[in-house]
Input
Amino acid sequence: MKRRFVLAAVSALLVVAMVSSTLLTVCVANSTTVNDTGIDNKIMYYLDFDGDLDNGGSINATISKNGTVSYADGYVGKGAVLDNGYVSIDDFAPGKDSFTVAFWVKTTGEMNTTAGNADPCIISSSSWHSSINPGLTLAYRNDYNGIRFNIADGNAHDYIDAPFASGEGEGWTHIVAMIDRDNDQIHMVYNFTQKFSQKIQDALQSSSLTSSYPLNIGHDGSGTYTNKLTNLMVDEFMIYDGILSNDEVAELAGAYGMGNRIVAANVLLGESIAINYYAK
Output
């Protein structure tokens, strides 16, 4: 079971940590931010899927579900079962900024499709009926057993194909997908180690990736694409502002390896928001 603690930001410095209880109170001074050097303060959206759609303190997030979203044992605590439904982040608008999407995914069933090389969406903010439609998509490819990360602006599209290594894609797999605007690159990382990188083509380097659709977890952005993964589970879904460095990916890996971590969502001093500490 995931254990929740609370972080409150106030005007004086005080840290009270009660390791064996269910309370962690952290109060910080007004002159600095919480965990400036870590990745916690980069999180824009966070869904733990621990039996509900609590956004974990995400700022101005509108989260909704479509169809049936149930919960089962996930990678940490509970995870979302999305074979008969999907989850929408209605206000996701990356524009021309760098960002990172990170989550655990598990697929144990066959694809609900009649097409031999179909590419059902794991997440998408695009109408996947055409790969040129604006937005981003991470789609499963069974022709090479991996994931295609596609970005488009309505006039052009680019993508990176990331095949699973032997043994990957079975059971829980951690995905990190990044758009790096400073270096005009797409990055994909599996299980914190295997990394794929590719230059974004010139036609898309200054394009916005905001679409007219929400970011859907478990379907394409329009919610109408025919092909859909069955028995799809997603857990610990996060969107970060900017990209994660190699050290930050290693920090995330180490935290999961220890079975616990601390995350926060855009913590600003003077605000009191929920912070979650989870232990397996």
User: Anything to note?
Assistant: The two ends are 7 Å apart (CA to CA).
